[in-house]
Design brief:
Shape: elongated
Largest sheet: none
Strand content: under 5%
Low-confidence stretches: 1-15, 17-33
Number of strands: 0
Distance between the termini: 114 Å
Order of helices and strands: HHHHHHHH
Helix content: over 70%
Length: about 220
């Protein structure tokens, strides 16, 4: 009996217990590579849209004015006015839009959350969109995009060269914005850059052509 007990006692040291990592360990093993890119969609869309809108709007406005006015001052004034007006418009529009979303989600929370769950109510409120933050971000993004064509035209005195420089700088900036948005959102870079670039070219070409057409058919500038 002693030998059997000893054998049983010794055999306990050879028992292998498989170790399966739990969910937390598996998450730590994966590291920080697992990113939910859908969470980036909202702010990424607003940032890319604001910067792209600022670039295309101001560049198209300057190209339109430049099609009938050779004075660099006229182009810069038109571009600066477009920057200020566009940034204010983006900020106000984003503020109203996000505030409407905030009111809707807040009303829905009041209908669904019970009075005794005050802590959960506070947590849910932290997840609500911030209208002021969204407005400021949109205005800044628009301004960043609009600065590129303004700086490009400010140091070129020759009229035709100035128009070409604005078009080239706007095209390069469009490619950069398209690539940055694609990389952050993990979408095809070439497709994003092509879509943004073609859209910007169309806006600048239409504005340039229509403004020149109106300016050369008897309208006094």
């Amino acid at each position: 009996m002693a030998s059997i007990g000893a054998r049983d006692q010794n055999s306990s040291y050879h028992v292998e217990i498989p170790a399966h990592p739990n969910a937390m360990e598996q998450k730590q093993q994966r590291g920080d590579d697992h990113v939910d890119y859908s969470q980036r969609a909202q702010w990424l869309r607003a940032a890319v849209l604001g910067a792209n809108d600022g670039l295309v709007s101001v560049a198209s406005l300057m190209m339109g004015v430049g099609s009938v006015k050779k004075d660099v001052k006229a182009m810069l004034l038109a571009g600066f006015a477009g920057l200020v007006a566009g940034a204010c418009s983006m900020a106000i529009g984003e503020f109203v839009s996000v505030y409407t979303q905030y009111d809707i989600e807040m009303s829905q929370m009041k209908r669904e959350i019970k009075p005794e769950s005050g802590m959960e109510n506070g947590v849910e409120k932290e997840k609500l969109p911030n209208p002021a933050q969204a407005a400021l971000a949109s205005a800044m993004a628009f301004s960043i995009g609009a600065v590129a064509p303004l700086l490009a035209a400010a140091f070129v005195s020759e009229h035709r060269v100035r128009l070409a420089v604005v078009a080239v700088v706007a095209s390069v900036a469009l490619l950069v914005f398209g690539a940055v948005g694609a990389v952050l959102g993990r979408t095809p870079v070439m497709r994003s850059c092509t879509r943004v670039l073609v859209g910007g070219w169309m806006a600048m070409a239409v504005t340039f052509g229509l403004t020149r057409l109106i300016g050369t058919t008897g309208l006094e500038m």
